[in-house]
Amino acid sequence: MEIVLDKKSILAKGESYIKEFKGRVFVIKYGGSNLDDEQVSVSILEDIAFLNQQGIKVVVVHGGGNAISRLMEKRGKRIEFVGGLRVTDEETANIVDEALADVNSDIVKKIKSFGSKANPIISREHGVIKAKGRNKTLQNDFTGDVDSIDTKTIEALLDKGAIPVVSPVGVGSDDKLYNINADFAAAEIAIALKAEKLFLLTNVKGIMKNHLDDKSLIPAVTEKEIEELISSGIIASGMIPKARASLKALFGGVKKVHIITGKIKHSLLIEVLTEKGIGTEIVL
Fold first, then answer.
1. E strand intervals along 100-203
2. How far apart, in whole angstroms, are the C-alpha atoms of residue 225 and residue 220?
3. What's CA 279's distance to the chain center, in Å?
4. All domains of the chain, ordered by start, with CATH?
5. Cβ(199)–Cβ(27) under 8 Å?
6. CA–CA distance from 50 to each of 7, 41, 126, 144, 273 (Å)?
7. Residue 160, exposed/middle/buried by CB under 10 A (0-12, 13-18, 19+)?
8. Cα diameter, the chain
9. DSSP label at 181?
10. 31-50 residue pLDDT tens
């Protein structure tokens, strides 16, 4: 992937956008292979810290699929996905929570290294994500959906100028842990906070007609087009929950949703602070 602009050029063009978005809420879902590439991780978290330092209220919701899979393999657990979502029994839900707590701690530490305040939010400690079972007809299924979001802790941190870093494991009414897809958790948090923007970071440029061809990027896609792209198999695997979560956020009142790569340096700043942007914008 080509580097589109350097940081100095981006900032020179983006001053008006910084003024426009000051005090607004951005929810950024950060996960996938972006977490495992140190150079990419540094670029993403540097951008997040910069946006925070310009007075934009940034919330990070992270995934950590590779970290989860590594810990599951270590514990001798079978790894299985259906429709882009991890199949989760009770033991797996606890492994997910353990792995993501470590990921969360690392993200918080790195953001602080860029001069911003950051605080971990783990649902078993803070009760932010209230979960419900996705499929009550299956025994020992701890794949969850968001039942509700308690925003008090997040809003208190935002008011102090800190970046809340949220692990997407929810706690059910039965006090058990539920594995919630991070894209949907980010969408629900964005809705609850009445966010200006939701960003879903991935390892490809956005929604593409051919995932092997960067030039096939679709700059904007509607609800109807998403359904057609899913039916035709163009949107597949892990991009399906991203597309569905994007629509959920828009229907819930989030103003704009962007699916963008984390692989291009300063991709977040390019998407926020330039007219053309860099990824796919989801529109109704």
1. 118-121, 129-133, 144-149, 163-166, 169-172, 177-179, 197-202
2. 10
3. 15
4. 7-13+20-283 (3.40.1160.10)
5. yes
6. 11, 14, 26, 33, 12
7. exposed
8. 56
9. -
10. 877 788 888 899 999 999 99
The one-character DSSP state at 275 is S
Cβ neighbours for 242, distance < 8 A, ≥ 6 positions apart: 183, 200, 202, 259
Q: What is the pTM of this model?
A: 0.93
Q: In what order do the strands lie in the sheet with 169-172?
A: 144-149, 129-133, 169-172, 177-179
Q: Within a 10 A sphere around the Cβ of 15, how many other Cβ atoms?
A: 11
Residue 1 has pLDDT above 80, yes or no: no
- The tokens for 257 are 């949703």
Strands 163-166 and 118-121 turn out to be parallel
DSSP 191-239: HHTT-SEEEEEESSSSSBSSTT-GGGB-SEEEHHHHHHHHHTTSS-TTH
CB of 282 closer than 8 Å to CB of 19: no
